[in-house]
Amino acid sequence: MATETVFECRNLHYAYQGKFPALCGVDMTIAAGERVALVGANGSGKSTLLNLLDALIFADQGSLAFRGTRLTEAAFRDDAFSMDFRKRVGLVFQNPDVQLFCPTVREDIAFGPLQLGSDQQTVKARIGQLAETLGISHLLDRSPHQLSVGEKRKVSLATILAIDPDVLLLDEPTAGLDPRTTTHLIDMLDAFAHAGKTVVTATHDLHTIGDIADKVYVFGQDRRIAACGSPEDILADVALLKANNLIHVHHHHARDHRKFHWGDGRDDSP
Amino acid sequence: MRHRRGFIECSLGGTLAFFRQALYDDETASMSGLLQGLDPRVKAASLLAFLLLALFTRSLPLLGFLYLLCLALAALSRIPLGSFLFRTWVFIPLFSLFIAVPALFSVVSPGRAVVSVGGLSITEQGLKAVAFFLGRVVTSVSLTVLLSMTTRHFELLKALRAFGVPQVFVMVLGISYRYIYLFVGIVEDTYRAIKSRVGSAMHYRKGQRIVTWNMAYLWKRSYQLNEQVYNAMLSRGFRGEPVSLDHFRIRLRDWLWLGGCAATILLLAYAELTIRK
């Protein structure tokens, strides 16, 4: 059985204010149920691509289609399509303070499903269920400014999971998290993917891509796709990672020997 | 040597203290007490009714009764009395007292002299006028503080819906409330970063320049955040007509409270009419 294509990007270009290029010809295909990681150095266009995939901005050139329908401003003037798209695609922003704009965690989680037409009772039940799964029940009546970074990330994820989208887009979900919270988050994403959902994660944390993705797109400094492959193949290609500023090698003199560090945290002593 | 706090430090300290106080209010609002257990809409409406009664009464004993009622409600809502009295007597009532002082004297309020000092006399009418003015101010402030200390701020905002305030307006207020804390945090961090580099000694001109620059930076940051937050709202299906979670529920105790308030107000109004006759 052929796998359905969720997103199809062809020669995608985008420039901020028309003069600061962020994407310069991206081609990409994301299939339903796939776990995709977008890796690249800062400023390589990962976040811009996620904003395009979530139809918050629209391409200057090229085409982007969601399940065969081109994502254009005109398409989103149709309320039915807009509602359907928002129900199916959810974006977890890099900065949780952007995502959490309501006075309390409970209201933030309820915001999405309520705007998308769910009734109050269903939303309340969903909040209780999600809060229990994510271990945030004690935070529901707190204000987002009272939460730690890890708690904010969990709540941000809950605000999108409350919509129950088919496609989850995540922008640097593990940034600033301690190892334990990172592991917990990876487990949650894993469970989401096992439920048959599509997960697209933008990250420069190479430690996690083996756990969160089956397919990796590497963004180059020229803001195009430099390579695509399995996490194992990409991580094994040291030259590729070095060329795209994802790892670097430096050394210093330890007590009695020279020590080399890789930018992704590995270290070798020759 | 004691370091003298500058204008910037004092202003920032004052702003941060205000927000810490707001957080403390949320703590008292989370306690289990009489007023905390009521539906915010019912509470706001009943305290507003008492406030109107305090404003329109012409009986001093009745005003005194309303103030005692405020103290009783504060005690039943587990609000520390010291903190309650501090918040209700400092600033507004004291400031009002200074304004009202001239009314004590015969020059402003002619009547029967109670005490005469030199050529000035404090009159009975003057004392009564000041007592009324101060009584109304302190009772009104007490009722307002009771409402704010026993209701979480976001619930207070949501209760506005019951008084016909549009949902969009309530939502904008809620978002503003949320982001004020974020910006206060940024200001505090920026100030610490400046202090860690330049210490406490700074020429006032340099201080002014830094403050101006930071105001511009904060404005730019809030403008960027505004756009990002709007995108986050769009991403979750917002289409200009916000729908919010309705978690207020009027229970038996709210009906009992409303009944009690209505009976008290009617009784007080009857007493007022009897006194006037």
Task: Give a verbal description of the structure.
- The complex is a heterodimer of chains A (270) and B (277).
- Chain A is 34% helix and 28% strand.
- Chain A contains ten helices and 13 strands.
- The mean pLDDT of chain A is 89.
- Chain B has 277 residues and is mainly α.
- In chain B, 71% of the residues lie in helices and 3% in strands.
- In chain B, helix 2 runs antiparallel to helix 6 and helix 2 packs parallel to helix 10 (252-276).
- The N and C termini of chain B lie far apart (67 Å).
- Chain A binds chain B through residues 51, 54, 56, 79, 82-83, 86-87, 90-91, 93, 95, 97-104, 106-107, 110-112, 114-116, 120, 123-124, 141, 143-145, 159-160, 163, and chain B through 26, 30, 152-154, 157, 174-175, 177-179, 181-182, 185, 225, 228-229, 231-239, 242-247.
Key features?
heterodimer; A: 270 residues; alpha/beta; 10 helices; B: 277 residues; mainly alpha
Rg of chain A computed from alpha carbons, rounded to a whole number of angstroms:
20 Å
Q: Per the principal axes of the C-alpha atoms, what is the gross shape of chain A?
A: globular
Distance between the termini of chain A: 49 Å
N-end to C-end Cα span of chain B? 67 Å
Write a compact overview of the structure shown.
Chain A is α/β, with parallel strands linked by helices and 270 residues long.
Topology:
The complex is a heterodimer of chains A (270) and B (277).
Chain A: E1 5-16, E2 20-31, E3 35-40, H1 46-53, E4 61-66, E5 69-70, H2 79-88, E6 89-92, H3 96-99, H4 105-115, H5 120-134, H6 149-161, E7 167-171, H7 179-194, E8 198-203, H8 209-212, E9 215-219, E10 225-229, H9 231-236, H10 238-243, E11 249-253, E12 258-262, E13 267-268
Parallel strand pairs in A: 3-8, 3-9, 6-7, 7-8
Antiparallel strand pairs in A: 1-2, 1-4, 4-5, 9-10, 11-12, 12-13
Helix pairs in contact in A: 4-5, 4-6, 5-6
Chain B: H1 7-29, H2 40-56, H3 60-76, H4 81-89, H5 92-100, E1 113-117, E2 120-123, H6 124-150, H7 153-159, H8 167-198, H9 204-235, H10 252-276
Antiparallel strand pairs in B: 1-2
